[in-house]
């Protein structure tokens, strides 16, 4: 989207906000610690921007994607190694649609 600028702390006043998706822009500065106080926030994706500083501590159950920000300390990304989740989901879906036929061979369920 080619967004420029910073993440304004006023986002924290949006109490029902569940997802913030800002990946692949030119957003700079720090992630406002006030975002950790959003009660409904479940997912924050700020990957591939120009953010710096340290990642605020978010509560349990919160997904934060922040890779690709050269100046951001992402050692505390919660949960770590987020790219693994989609692969596990795909494997589960593939296994769930295989059906064993009486003829003794595998086939796809329709």
TrEMBL record:
Q: Does the keyword Transmembrane helix apply?
A: yes
Pfam families listed in its UniProt record? LRR_8
Chief location of this protein within or outside the cell: membrane
Record's keyword terms, sorted: Glycoprotein, Leucine-rich repeat, Membrane, Receptor, Repeat, Signal, Transmembrane, Transmembrane helix
* Cellular component GO terms, alphabetical: membrane
Q: Does the keyword Signal apply?
A: yes
Topology term for the membrane: Single-pass membrane protein
Q: Where in the cell is it found?
A: Membrane
Q: State the InterPro entries in the record.
A: Auxin_Ser/Thr_Kinase, Leu-rich_rpt, LRR_dom_sf
A Gene Ontology molecular-function term? kinase activity
* Name of the featured protein: Receptor protein kinase TMK1-like
């Amino acid at each position: 989207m080619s967004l420029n600028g910073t993440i304004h702390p006023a986002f924290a006043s949006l109490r029902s906000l569940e997802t913030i998706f800002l990946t692949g822009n030119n957003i700079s500065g720090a992630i406002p610690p006030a975002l950790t106080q959003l009660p409904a926030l479940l997912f924050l994706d700020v990957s591939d921007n120009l953010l710096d500083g340290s990642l605020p501590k978010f509560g349990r159950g919160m997904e934060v994607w922040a890779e690709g920000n050269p100046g951001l300390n992402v050692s505390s990304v919660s949960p770590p190694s987020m790219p693994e989740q989609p692969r596990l989901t795909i494997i589960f879906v593939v296994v769930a649609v295989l059906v064993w036929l009486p003829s003794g061979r595998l086939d796809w369920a329709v």
